[in-house]
Amino acid sequence: MAERIAGPEIERLIQLLARLPGLGPRSARRAALHLIRKREELLSPLADAMRVAHDRIVVCTDCGNIDTSNPCAVCCDPRRDPTILLVVETVADLWALERVGAMRARYHVLGGALSPLDGVGPKELNLERLPIRVEADGVREVIIAVNATVDGQTTAHYITDLLTHLEVKVTRLAHGVPVGGELDYLDEGTLSAAIRQRTVF
Q1: pLDDT at residue 2 above 60?
Q2: pTM of this prediction?
Q3: Are 154 and 198 in contact (CB under 8 A)?
Q4: Which domains, and CATH codes, for the chain?
């Protein structure tokens, strides 16, 4: 059994950092040491920022985004088209689409994807409010922007069935050859999707 080489406070910091995505025990130790070395520049401001985030961040009751206000800034933005609703799995997906800036639409964050094997059913996701929002807000198009995984496909089919009784156009993001992609380097699934979803030139 390895001896403890730091106090419990430092060990706790390392353990918590190791829980972050992409950080294992070694990376967490390096990050902790860096934060401690830069205590005034990094550790103190980070601790303050995390305390403020913990106290002020809320989940938007309209769309499921996270922000410091409810409704969130996206839902309150008058420049967005309220008749288009982008359905995404997570807030990270919402942020990714916002970085691109290709659409000024509203969002609906599911909080994950349907995955029966992992015990994630419709009740575990933000699905119940979707048809209510579509009807109440006069949505004309729902764009299903879920991941191109088995769980994502299952979720997309479920959403399509959920909205069949409403007069709304349901579309989904195209899947296929990425911009700048070379065919020789693409996997079979991507190539198959690209062929199935081919468009007129």
Answers
A1: no
A2: 0.81
A3: no
A4: 66-172 (3.40.1360.10)
